[in-house]
Amino acid sequence: MNIAAQRVVSIHYEVKDEDGVVVDSSEGREPLVYLHGHNNIIPGLEKALDGLSTGDDFDVVVQAEEAYGDYQDALVQSVPMEAFQGVEKVEEGMVFTAQTQGGPLQVTVTAIEADTVTVDGNHPLAGKALSFKGSVNEVRDASAEELEHGHVHS
Questions:
Q1: CATH: 3.40.30.10, 3.10.50.40, 3.20.20.70, 3.40.350.10. Which one for 7-68+125-149?
Q2: What pTM was estimated for this model as a whole?
Q3: Local structure of 146: helix, strand or coil
Q4: Mind listing the pLDDT tens digit of every residue in the chain (154 residues)?
């Protein structure tokens, strides 16, 4: 059975960034299982997997715009330290959820200067091409309930 929309797909994978650093892998874990055609994985990988079958290997580079998007400078902002009331100590690398006009947004603290904190709302892999290598473990038809909910049920 080939990978196509409305099918449940199970893959083993390894993802590397542009510097060849492994950023995620299913090694030693269960395979990733998702509903194909429902935006449950990044678009570029989903396109690359389309049509493959159980046992097929894949090795694909997904450009930033079809992965986590281009890096957006507008998502980097300086905010007053008072915005972090209740946090004992704000440190670089900490992740917070900010309430924005567009809804909640995860931001990472990238710098602290006196009473100002710089936060970055970009995904850590935004602006980067990613290399995916792996194999298709299983492909099956989705159940009616999975299709209705738009994701896989275990």
A1: 3.10.50.40
A2: 0.84
A3: helix
A4: 999 999 999 999 999 999 999 999 999 999 999 999 999 999 999 999 999 999 999 999 999 999 999 999 999 999 999 999 889 999 999 999 988 888 898 999 999 998 999 999 999 999 999 999 999 999 999 999 999 999 998 7
What is the DSSP annotation of 29-96?
SPPEEEETTSS-S-HHHHHHHTT-BTT-EEEEEE-GGGTT----GGGEEEEEGGGGTT-S---TT-EE
DSSP 3-state of 129: coil
